[in-house]
Amino acid sequence: MISSRQKRLLHTVFRQVLLIFTSLVILFPLYIAISTSLKEPAQVFAYPYAWIPNPIRWQNYPLVFSLVPLWRFLFNSVIQSTMTTVATMVTSAFAAYAFVYVDFIGKKFIFLLVLATMMVSGEVTVIPNYLLVQRFGWVDTYWGLTVPFFATGFGIFLLRQFFMQIPRELYDAAIVDGCSRIRYLFVVMIPLSRAALGTLAVYTYLSTWNQYFWPLIVTNRTFMRTVQIGIAMLRDEEGDAWHTIMAGVVVVTLPAIILFLVFQKQLVRGIVGGAVKG
Amino acid sequence: MLQNQRNSEKSKQLRRTLGPLVSASLYLAPAALILITFVYYPLLRSVYLSLYETDFLARPIFFTGIGQYQELLSSPRFWDSLRITFLFTLYTVPFALVIAMPVALLGNLPVRGRTFYRTTFICTIAVSTAIASVVWTWMFAPTTGVMNDLLRLVGIAPIRWLQDPRFALPAVSIATIWKGLGLNVLFLLAGLQGVSDELLDAARIDGANSWQSFRNITLPMLSPTIFFLLVVGTIEAFRSFAQIHIMTQGGPLRSTSILVYAIYRDAFINFRFSYASTQAVTLFLIILALTLIQFRVVERRVHYQ
User: Fold this and answer.
1) What are the chain B neighbours of A49 within 8 Å (beta carbons)?
2) What number is the ipTM of this complex?
3) Residue range B167-191, pLDDT digits in tens
4) A 135-174 near B (Cβ less than 8 A)
5) Quick one: CA dihedral A168, A170, A172, A175, positive or negative?
6) Does domain B77-304 have CATH number 1.10.3720.10?
7) Based on the domain organization, do A100 and A199 belong to the same domain?
8) Are A32 and A249 in contact (CB under 8 A)?
9) CB 3.0 to 4.6 Å from A138: which of A103, A132, A144, B196, for a disulfide?
10) How is B147-161 classified by DSSP, letter by letter?
């Protein structure tokens, strides 16, 4: 006979085993990427499949940096994501502020027009946007990569929701004391909204870093490629050299994973909070 | 005198409406400029282009009206890409949920290391679709890939995943489900926070087993989240591009040529901008319909609470 204490212990062990197993299954593709990036070429083509890299070959990493301008791709992606994030925060903060603190006619309707932009996905507008960017002479420039994403309905919506939670009395008191509206935005609202701005920043940065369709269309020259396009191209150029391709994959994904681990709370809040549009 | 007074009254009122309007426009100007230029104008331009025949530089040549829509609707290739898109949706969306549900329930267990497990379960939200596609292309490699090695271990003959028209779309779907798992689990975990503990406790006291509690309490209370994920997943499936572009280029034998990929090919490889715009407008209408359905239901959920 097993006692109830033993039963409970068994239960705990069973749960932990289940959780660890699930984690391993989910992490499996990431393990394949990392382990392959450390293999010798002979092991990559080995049959049956070599599950553990032996010997470990770190040279794949310097190799991938010498095969393609990976530093340049990383630099491009950092510029692209930083520009988009900063601009989105500025345009969203101004617009959201007007929607909360200025009572103008047609406010509801204009806000609806802003929300409606969330329904227009980039795939639908990609052709005219490409033609427009081409006419501006922005193909293969950072402007072309980023300007179309300098404002989003999502960003405005997210900040508006947050601004509305800050007590209106604070605003009224400040105005009575002679504080101007624009000054209030910078001195009170923005410091108070650090959490929401952080959420928007992390979300925008990550989704820009991971963009694929638009950077593919709007960059032609190698030195203007972003990391995502660079890695996809590496695959076309290197064919079956999976050890170097996976080294590139790890280099490109690591910043995103670190960002995710450090700012998980903000990110989760942004994704879940932004989805409840009701 | 009275006239004057009335006039000044009027101008004061005018100032009271115009003042806020002017300052609102200043605050809204940067965002409005971007959204009008890169969302509203292109949307209208897409419709415009779809009504004209264009040359290879996308210059309109002559008006065709709904001619291209007729051409589209009578083109077997369009129906084929629509069918493949539906199939892709069918492969990815329900399975993603069926897999994500037990994972989320596991992540909700009150165990040691829960934060760690949750982080692991949602980590694919940090991985881009492009990267996921490159990794899975390697995993699906015909002779040297790990997926066929797993099949070998359980005694199944190797499959030419991405080179076989029968398996290419399922293979792309598997990669897509993996990439989307994090987001699905994240929303289900958030939804599970809203499931009342008292109800679950009461059910347990009444002798309900865990399956009964899940079936009769957790699942109904999660239904808004599940519905939301179904719609968002469907929209995502209709928007999918990177995995096709990287894993199969629409092949083999066009078996994975989903709608957005067809638009890409028509516009940026064949330079048939107007015909591609016709498809883009069609895609927009589909996404619009899906979004409206979702709004309707979200609204209803708010009323229930």
Assistant:
1) 144-146, 148-149
2) 0.89
3) 999 999 999 999 999 999 998 998 8
4) 147-151, 153, 156
5) negative
6) yes
7) yes
8) no
9) A144
10) HHHHHHHTT-----G
